Backbone:
């Protein structure tokens, strides 16, 4: 066997590929599902927190900042392990799927809150004054004048952060969620061949490359007008 | 209207009559803009009373949003909403504050933009308009709400000289139509031509006030004399 053939046999073994293809697809679907749920709930939660924060109620803001700092500082894996292995001891048992979704949602919410908040702050004070001077309420101004401008500025960092956090769905492997990486490593163990891992990597590319492009497209679309 | 004592501004006490154009001049930092922003409480006066069209806007429980829509304000930096067209800028408060249906708001926006000579720009975004056009669109945004009084905060200071005239013409038209106006500006020629009264402010107080002809030709205070001499050159 030449080096080249050994390489092919290790990473692109046709027999292994054929055998584990369905498993990899199943894992991809699960990863895809969790990723979509995390993106939707994480960004909405983060947006809600940023909007709430803009009312500047001191006690509420204290709680928000505390939440955001904790979830930004802790590695998601630590949170996942604590929730999955720790909480059952106090009588609260959640499936690995729920734990993974919950932790990643909170982490994405924390980061996106900061991004939305920075966007809100970056909108010129004159925009607030102009809107309020026409009789628009604080909330009407926030939603109709400030947020449309703030969100435009948040698209690039939000896209990057969202991709970075949804990739963490792979952490589900540690707590037995049958997502993509779990299926790939299991297949690798059974077959004694690294091909399933390569298939997993390719599957991740299939999932995330379009997201990267979508982000670039949205970024481009939102960069329409300079103030 | 009367303005009671304000803390940042001290002892400001003036009345503006209906259809009067009051022109406020003074060196930068003299409190002109602060004074103007107190008139619709974008700036909170610490003490004193401000009465607009018979309603105290400083009273506890005053409905600020209801009061503000009767007080139009125009800013130095235009502050058009960049994500909305000229028409969208005018329509926003009509829709959200007055609850007008879209078609009616559009008609009002058309009329307001027509009044400032921008009927053909209704679907243009602010970045597709010149500075002068942007400021006129901002005036239309305020006018569409049929305010009782218009406040102008250095409306031409951010404009290229050749665009100033268009904005001043619109303001002169408003004056002719009987609008009550308070204008903070350095356009002394406009003040002489259109103002009923000129107020000179310095250091947060009204130093002197009078008809433009008197105040410019014959200032009573040294500070006013110095300022008038400076800006006339």
Residues:
């Amino acid at each position: 066997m030449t080096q080249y053939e050994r390489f092919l046999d290790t990473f692109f073994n046709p027999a292994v590929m054929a055998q584990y293809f369905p498993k990899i697809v199943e894992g991809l679907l699960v990863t895809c599902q969790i990723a979509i749920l995390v993106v939707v709930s994480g960004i909405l939660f983060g947006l809600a927190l940023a909007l709430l924060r803009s009312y500047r109620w001191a006690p509420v803001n204290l709680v928000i900042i505390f939440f955001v700092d904790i979830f930004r500082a802790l590695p998601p894996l630590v949170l996942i392990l604590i929730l999955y292995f720790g909480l059952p001891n106090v009588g609260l048992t959640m499936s690995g799927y729920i734990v993974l979704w919950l932790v990643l949602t909170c982490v994405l919410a924390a980061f996106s809150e900061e991004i939305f908040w920075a966007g809100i702050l970056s909108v010129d004070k004159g925009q607030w004054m102009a809107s309020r001077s026409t009789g628009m309420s604080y909330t009407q101004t926030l939603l109709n004048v400030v947020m449309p401008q703030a969100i435009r500025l948040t698209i690039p960092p939000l896209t990057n952060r969202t991709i970075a956090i949804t990739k963490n769905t792979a952490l589900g492997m540690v707590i037995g969620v049958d997502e993509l990486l779990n299926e790939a490593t299991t297949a690798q163990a059974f077959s004694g061949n690294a091909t399933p891992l390569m298939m997993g990597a390719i599957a991740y590319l299939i999932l995330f490359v379009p997201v990267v492009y979508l982000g670039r497209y949205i970024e481009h679309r939102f960069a329409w007008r300079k103030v | 209207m009367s303005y009671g004592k304000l803390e940042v501004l001290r002892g400001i006490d003036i009345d503006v009559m209906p259809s009067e154009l009051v022109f406020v001049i003074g060196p930068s930092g003299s409190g002109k803009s602060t004074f103007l922003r107190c008139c619709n409480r974008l700036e909170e006066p610490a003490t004193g009373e401000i009465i607009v069209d018979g309603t105290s806007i400083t009273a506890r429980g005053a409905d600020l949003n209801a009061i503000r829509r009767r007080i139009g304000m125009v800013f130095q930096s235009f502050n058009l909403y960049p994500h909305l067209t000229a028409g969208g800028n005018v329509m926003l408060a009509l829709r959200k504050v007055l609850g007008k249906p879209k078609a009616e708001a559009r008609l009002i926006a058309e009329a307001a933009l027509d009044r400032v000579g921008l009927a053909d720009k209704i679907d243009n975004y602010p970045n597709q308009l010149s500075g002068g056009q942007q400021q006129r669109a901002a005036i239309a945004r305020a006018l569409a709400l049929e305010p009782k009084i218009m406040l102008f905060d250095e409306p031409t200071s951010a404009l290229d000289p050749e665009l100033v005239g268009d904005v001043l013409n619109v303001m002169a038209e408003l004056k002719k139509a009987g609008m009550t106006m308070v204008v903070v500006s350095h356009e002394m020629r406009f003040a002489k031509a259109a103002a009923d009264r000129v107020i000179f402010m310095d250091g947060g107080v009204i130093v002197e006030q009078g008809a433009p002809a008197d105040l410019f030709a014959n200032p009573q205070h040294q500070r006013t004399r110095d300022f008038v001499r400076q800006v006339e050159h």
